What we know:
Order of helices and strands: EHEHEEHEEE
Mean pLDDT: 96
Number of helices: 3
Shape: globular
CATH architecture: 3-Layer(aba) Sandwich
CATH superfamily: Vaccinia Virus protein VP39
Oligomer: single chain
Amino acid sequence: MLTLAKVGPGDVVYDLGSGDGRIVIAAAQKFGARGVGVDIEPARIVDAEVNAARAGVERLVAFKLQDALETDVSDATVVTLYMLPEFNAKLRPILERQLKPGSRVVSHDYPIEGWTPERIEVVKGSFVHDHTVLLFEVR
Length: 139
């Protein structure tokens, strides 16, 4: 997802539904980007903070205990998601309102209704199925 979005050191990556923080941690470790993980589950925030400290990137990342639909993403240059289509449809007007032109949105497996992806890549899965990664650019 991060490679498809061409994440670099000048980016701010928001991962909505960030779980254990692996996306924003990878953005910091591999690409030098800053990152913000957002999750509604307190235990996932604790896991993510521990994982960031273990990875030595806690100065580049932060985690918010928050509903993704209530999160201000206006400083994001990249937003990553792994949400169902119904959630993506609710999120779309928020992203359109808050993100600057040129910002990238990367969705794992599910489209964003009303948006046409710039690129679609299929990533070989290791167990059950392959994964589709969709890249969108805000206009």
